[in-house]
Amino acid sequence: MDTATQSSNGTGSFLQVFVVEDSAPVRERLLEMLASIEGATCAGLADTAEEATGKILLANPDAVILDIGLSQGSGFDVLRALQKDSTDIPVYVLSNHSTEPYRRLAMKLGAAAFFDKTTQIDELRALLKRDASHRIHAAH
Fold first, then answer.
1. Mean pLDDT by 10 residues, the chain (140 residues)
2. What predicted TM-score, i.e. pTM, was given to this entire model?
């Protein structure tokens, strides 16, 4: 394998993204989006806050896509747990709950960015594409 396809974590992908989403259709859409980004891949999946926190800490991904409304717990629980463990993993919140109080709380709890699930998925994709591209170019 040449250096253009190797990553720092040895998995063959430059940007490992963990997805926390409890809606199967949305999760599939996010996985399709990741598959369409050169150098990006899914590092893991979770649909509850407790499952997400443990799996994220174990996987140590390069980024997290996090829904606020989960089947058990909330994305805020995940943000609090990651903040408590002092991780520096960028967390991109993607939620239908995109009012200003939700945005403010997410950012206060350490989210790197907040996207409205219904109108800003393309902006999230562009951000992830940029992150993956930077990693690809840094490896050369």
1. 35 82 95 95 96 95 96 95 88 92 96 95 95 80
2. 0.87
